[in-house]
TrEMBL record:
The keyword ATP-binding applies. It comes from Gluconacetobacter diazotrophicus (strain ATCC 49037 / DSM 5601 / CCUG 37298 / CIP 103539 / LMG 7603 / PAl5). It holds the Pfam family ABC_tran. Gene3D superfamilies: P-loop containing nucleotide triphosphate hydrolases. This is Putative molybdenum import ATP-binding protein modC. One of its GO terms (molecular function) is ATP hydrolysis activity. The gene is modC. Residues 231-254 are annotated as: Disordered. PROSITE patterns: ABC_TRANSPORTER_1, ABC_TRANSPORTER_2.
């Protein structure tokens, strides 16, 4: 792949007592999953890409657009990035419609974004628009958060374990919407998880992480047998039988 078709990042620094030295290239299309055990730095990578954290040394570019190098650091608010967190972080005083319009930067109802109706329909939010945030389920809140992020018209969508705070029923509710995003939107998605089933259902490309470093990366088809829910990766490139079965089942259902 050429530089123009890559998300290219390299970050060195510390977050408290946690030191990291990450370097990775990912396709600037499809879903790239960051997979590894809790505490290995998956969320740190996303925060550095978004410009929310500034590492001691770093490089970050999407295609030909450089957001950070030795001479520049583009602040978070100027980076065309959508960010979906573990917790939806919606504005509690606004309705679903108000949260979506805030994401779109709308200041007047006379200037609604042309893609608003499409995103509302894709995420099946039509019946929720006038509802307050307090009256939404966890899955509904996360769908609103995804819609708000997409209405920023981002060049890159970051998703930091968007299903981790949901119970099994709510995960099953929202996973089809994530699969639909994968099929319908054309922007690259960087998806953080330590759940094999999610990765198997969504990822085109996988980056395997150990604490503070990238172990290896590649297309899902080449990386599937390296994944392990307990350790993040397996040096012997094999999966326990049960985990391997879960991977195959999740991929075939997706």
């Amino acid at each position: 792949m050429t530089d123009s078709s890559l998300l290219r990042v390299a970050f060195q620094g510390r977050a408290g007592t946690f030191g990291y030295d990450f370097a990775l290239d990912a396709p600037a299309q499809g879903v790239t999953a960051l997979f590894g055990p809790s505490g290995c730095g998956k969320s740190t990578i996303l925060r550095c890409i978004a410009g929310l954290d500034r590492p001691a040394a770093g490089y970050c570019a999407l295609g030909d657009t450089v957001w950070q190098d030795a001479k520049r650091f583009v602040p978070a608010w100027r980076r065309p990035i959508g960010y979906v967190f573990q917790e939806p972080s919606l504005f509690p005083h606004l309705s679903v419609r108000g949260n979506l319009l805030y994401g779109a930067g709308v200041r007047s109802l006379r200037r609604l974004p042309p893609d608003l109706a499409d995103i509302i329909a894709m995420l099946e939010l039509e019946t929720l628009l006038e509802r307050g945030v307090a009256h939404l389920s966890g899955g509904e809140r996360q769908r609103v958060a995804i819609g708000r992020a997409l209405l920023r018209r981002p060049a890159l969508l970051l998703m930091d374990e968007p299903l981790s705070a949901l119970d099994s029923a709510r995960k099953n509710e929202i996973l089809p919407f994530l699969q639909m995003l994968h099929r319908q939107i054309r922007i690259p998605i960087l998806y953080v998880s330590h759940d094999i089933g999610e990765i198997a259902s969504l990822a085109d490309h996988v980056v395997l992480l150990a604490p503070g470093r990238v172990v290896e990366s590649g297309p899902w088809a080449d990386m599937a047998d390296r994944l392990d829910n307990r350790r993040g990766y397996r040096p012997d490139h094999t999966l326990p039988d049960a985990a391997a079965t879960d991977c195959r089942a999740a991929r075939s259902e997706g």
